[in-house]
Amino acid sequence: MAPRDTGEAGARESSPVTVVWAYRRTGKFAFHVLTGALESDPRTADVPIEFSNGVTAVGEAIDRAVAAGRRVLVGWSFYSPDFALMTRELAELLPRHRAGGVLHVAGGVHATAEPAATLRAGFDLIATGEGEHLIRDLVLALQSDADPHSVQGIAWLDAAGELRRNGRAARANLDEFPPFGPRHRRFGPIEITRGCVYACRFCQTPYFAGASFRHRSVANVREWVRFLLPGGFRDFRFLTPTSMSYGATGPEPDLAAVEALLGGVRDDIGPDRKLWFGTFPSEVRPEHVTPAALELIRRYADNRTLILGGQSGSDRVLRTSERGHDVATIERAAALCVEFGFVPHVDFLFGLPGEEAADLEATFGLMDRLVAAGAKVHGHTFMPLPGTPFRKAAPGVLDTATRKRLLRLSSAGALYGQWQQQERTASELFRGQSSS
Ligand code: SF4
């Protein structure tokens, strides 16, 4: 949909509903998108929405709504590493509100991949799949006293504790929804592509959002960019699984589509505002780094860093992870970036399944060569994420010697990232999955 005033009157409610987002930094853009979905439908545009950060704030928001005689939909959205924390927060809230017409609904990649375990942790319902259509349908069902189990994409436990599900939520056409919640002034990067044609075995994206690309049209992106301009926005960023795939249907980039996007947005924002592409919060696949692609980014975007997905310095590990590129491609991409005036930040995943001492040695060798050539290394530790082909693999573990080498790179300023924290989280996640 295009930006518009969404302040139309809401549908007549027989049961007034308040939506409370259990709002956290890590999942906030998902809540902004869901907020936009509610705002942009005249039937749900006026439902009150609370953005409650932290368990105390969520509890207070629920109390206020219950005291006002409203039904409450508490929305939770989290990634797998946060599941244990979210479960603890829910456990604090449940005893207070059991009798009060309060529904705790979990959505997102983890809940979709592990609905039974998530429900057994105490959530009332799971929203499986993408949330835009589902959240509207769920609010409408609650407002009209319809059975929430009738909503497409809802999963629940029956009286015998067995998982029941009503399909999976319909996938969204990005042009039909705002990229954020404009009426509530909840903004974020504009999602330009959803889904991914690649099948990297550690990644949840193709599982959750589908194995094909869905793109927001250039016209729609530009309308939202122009919507943001009067609000004083100076930085424009995009969300996509693979930046250079904008407009493409398969692995081959469509540079004309990328140029239409970047050139159009640049026309809209003028020379002084900043346009970011191929960098946080998105990245570029190494085989997409070509002189023509770099020329395009240099012409239209302001960033002079690019985030490249590398993942391993071992061709064997890249093959078993089904990354779809080899080590030489990573090195070539990094060298080209430097030649064109970009600092490549190359993502690595330590402890991928099947990684042996020789593979790790190859990864250190590649990292050293990349750093010597002018790159930085962004380190992660492998986590066996629910829904992925590697979900049953052992979590990444770094031995003492490896950790020391990584710390040396880190103190030299060549390596950054959450790899230490992720090693701890990966073990917790694995223990949680093994016991569920
Ligand atoms: S890691 Fe990137 S390229 Fe691979 S499947 Fe996930 S989103 Fe796609």
Q: What are the bound molecules? A: iron/sulfur cluster
Q: Using the alpha-carbon principal axes, give the shape.
A: globular
Distance linking N and C termini:
41 Å
Q: What percent of the residues sit in helical stretches (DSSP H or I)?
A: 25-40%
Radius of gyration over all CA atoms, rounded: 23 Å
Proper CATH architecture of the largest domain: Alpha-Beta Horseshoe
If helices are DSSP runs of H or I spanning 4 or more residues, what is the number of helices?
Answer: 15
If you average the pLDDT, what whole number results? 94
Topology:
Elements: E1 17-22, H1 28-39, E2 49-52, H2 55-67, E3 71-77, H3 83-97, E4 102-107, H4 109-113, H5 115-120, E5 125-127, H6 131-143, E6 154-157, E7 163-165, E8 190-191, E9 193-194, H7 205-209, E10 214-215, H8 218-228, E11 235-236, E12 238-239, H9 255-269, E13 274-275, H10 291-300, E14 305-311, H11 315-320, H12 327-339, E15 343-350, H13 357-372, E16 376-381, H14 400-411, E17 415-416, H15 419-435
Parallel strand pairs: 1-2, 1-3, 3-4, 4-5, 8-12, 11-13, 14-15, 15-16, 16-17
Antiparallel strand pairs: 5-6, 6-7, 9-10
Helix pairs in contact: 1-6, 2-3, 8-9, 9-10
